[in-house]
User: Fold this.
Amino acid sequence: MILVLRALGVGDLATGVPALRALRAAYPDRELALAAPRWLAPLVDLVGGVDRLVPADGLGNLGWPGPPPGLAVNLHGCGPRSHRVLAATRPGRLLAFASPDAGHADGPDWRADEHEIDRWCRLLGWYGVPADRTDLALRRPAPGGIPTGVTVVHPGSKVPAKRWPARRFAALARELTGRGHRVVVTGSAGERELAGWVAYHGGLAPDAVLAGRTDLGDLAALVAGARLVVSGDTGVAHLATGYGTASVVLFGPVPPARWGPPPDRPWHRVLWHGDGARPHRPAARPPGAWGDWPGYDGVTTDSTLSAVGLDEVLAAVDDAERAVRVSGAVTA
Assistant:
């Protein structure tokens, strides 16, 4: 039995795919269990190779029900808390970054500025398990009743500072519609009001608002069959990478060097105005209705992200779609 800890979100799971695939290839005859939030189950199925999902919300006690795993792998963090969560299952061996505070002297040192994909591939490589950082493709779900060929505009993020101003997303939706795109607006249930605001001010019909109306499996199917995705640095951008769907990703405050799509894919365009050195200005959403939120005008958006202009995004859209035509990449 191999127990892997990755109790985080959509983008975290997507960037961990090469490491998970490497473990599957290295131990083809062992059961592979992934400790992750229960709501990620549809995406875990699309990763493939995972035999069992162990529900884990953050770094609480796993309540591990079975015998000690022969191997535990920390793909969650640098410790000490995540190390201790796995150590509590009494594994035969723990693969993890060195953490003296957790009593784990084995493993490589943590690098704070490393790309998230490379971090976990390097960890496994240190233990003799080779991983391919390009092995990011997700299984394509059956579309069912999900629309295909649409352009996905995703204005939300669980981190407020990563939200490009909503007024600009609305203007983008209007411009793209004028260019012949069939635009839909996605988001979580908690972002439905924001998505509705963007759709209304972008001249879209109410049925273009899919926020809160799709589960994770539906969202994956939507992105897999989409024409284009435009979003901030959030989970839906990683789904676009996993399906090779043309995308424009707006970065700030975290640089694309840590979370961006593969640089050798020209149909994934990245916009970033940080220099990697100057401090950013994070923001928390203040109380009140979305319509009263200064973030609509870019006031609470991170300064590197608010520097990204509408014309720049539209030019990146053109570049991404041109790259699809030139390369013959299948994005829907």
